[in-house]
Design a protein that fits this description.
Length: about 400
């Protein structure tokens, strides 16, 4: 490990999460990739496989970036590798093994090429929108190294190498997106909402946006995967939040608890107008508090009119916001929401914001405990938290609002 690592405050790692380089170094000293055992071995420069389909777009050097059509080096029904609805049911090691077997062949492109793609880029676009696995024959210039993709926002991906040649076969564009792909008068934001309403998952929607397959003709852009995931979560949750604001307020406090391996998820739905917060507490020995000696707690929030700045806590803010907005729409009610997550020692590999979205969705599928006031709600939550409940109460913006505006504390 890095000798100077212990000099970096854990609070800085929690804010940075390997993306902003706030420590001033040109690399992330936490060295997340070093923690992953080599789960799939591949040698050689030629790959034949069945892509789920899978596509990754990098962000460095934007607007001149790398786009990576990706495939595992084996054939068969690999659709499970891109279906986020199935990932929670997998053992985490199996999930990582599957995702890290996706080998990426990189091509340098200009983001604006999406507005007038050449034959190769158009084939990459259309094949990535296939409703079933795509046959790929790919040759890369160099042997694959251990440069796997592990990121707080992005679903894990395997190693990459510059692409030399690629052939696609047996792909069928998803009928939910075909009309939208060829509609060059439809704005990207409207396309995102239409795909969601047609039942497409966030992973598929973000892939369509990343590949430059959405938007009006001249404004189509290839979008880095990190940005496209957040754009999908935000656009859809923005739309849902505006809808649920018109619903009748809930008249009770609903408390949801979900305990998973290495994590605790808490949801408190409260009477009142729309407000939202997402908080995380990273314990020593967890991903972004690897070498600290105290728990680091971070929280972002919004009031009725939302935010005008990007949350410091990152893309998980919008993935959790989407899940709670879906819950309120299902109930045909509105209210405020406090969502908190505790991350415990040993959970030390970032797997992407899908993990938050799917766990919060699962959280709200459970049966809540019902209370008449915030005091009893918080007392119940305190039975599960390892962070002292007083810390959450101090950090929580919604709690302060409830205390000052509702005579129930």
């Amino acid at each position: 490990m890095v000798k100077n690592l212990i000099k970096i405050p854990p609070s800085l790692c929690v804010k940075c999460r390997g993306a902003k380089m706030l420590c001033g170094l040109s690399y992330c000293p936490v060295s997340i990739a070093d923690r992953v055992k080599k789960v799939y071995t591949f040698t050689g420069n030629s790959i034949t496989g069945s892509s789920p389909p899978s596509l990754f777009v990098g962000r460095y050097g934007y607007p001149k970036i790398n786009i990576y059509p990706s495939t595992p080096p084996f054939t068969g029904n690999t659709s499970y590798m891109e279906d986020e609805s199935k990932w929670l049911s997998q053992d985490l090691n199996d999930f990582l093994s599957n995702r890290l077997s996706l080998l990426r062949g990189g091509i340098k492109v200009e983001a604006t090429q999406a507005s007038n793609p050449d034959y190769r880029l158009q084939e990459i676009q259309i094949s990535s929108l296939s409703s079933s696995p795509v046959d790929i024959e790919m040759t890369v210039e160099k042997s694959f190294k251990n440069n796997v993709m592990l990121d707080e926002n992005i679903t894990p991906m395997g190693p990459s190498s510059p692409l030399k040649s690629i052939k696609f076969g047996n792909y069928h564009i998803d009928n939910r997106i075909e009309k939208i792909y060829y509609d060059r008068d439809l704005k990207a934001g409207n396309g995102i909402i239409k795909l969601y309403e047609k039942g497409m998952g966030i992973n598929g929607i973000s892939k369509a946006l990343s590949s430059g397959s959405l938007g009006t003709g001249k404004k189509r852009r290839i979008v880095p995967t990190r940005w496209s995931i957040t754009a999908a979560d935000k656009s859809i949750s923005d739309n849902l939040v505006e809808e649920i604001k018109d619903y009748k307020e809930i008249d009770e406090f609903q408390v949801y608890i979900r305990e998973t391996k290495g994590n605790l998820f808490i949801g408190i739905l409260a009477p009142g107008q729309w407000m939202f917060e997402w908080g995380e507490s990273w314990f020593p020995g967890s991903t972004w508090n690897s070498f600290g000696d105290s728990v680091e707690v971070e929280l972002d929030y919004e009031g009725y009119y939302g935010r005008n700045t990007y949350p410091d806590i990152g893309g998980c803010y919008y993935s959790s916001r989407l899940a709670v907005a879906e819950k309120y729409k299902e109930m045909k009610r509105t209210g405020s929401a406090m969502l908190w997550r505790e991350i415990y020692p040993g959970f030390n590999i970032p797997v992407g914001v899908w993990y938050v979205r799917e766990n919060v969705r699962e959280l709200f599928r459970g049966k809540p405990e019902i209370f008449d006031n915030i005091q009893d709600s918080v007392n119940y939550v305190s039975k599960f938290t390892k962070v002292d409940i007083s810390v959450w109460k101090v950090k929580s913006n919604n709690m302060k609002y409830l205390v000052s505006n509702l005579d129930n504390y």
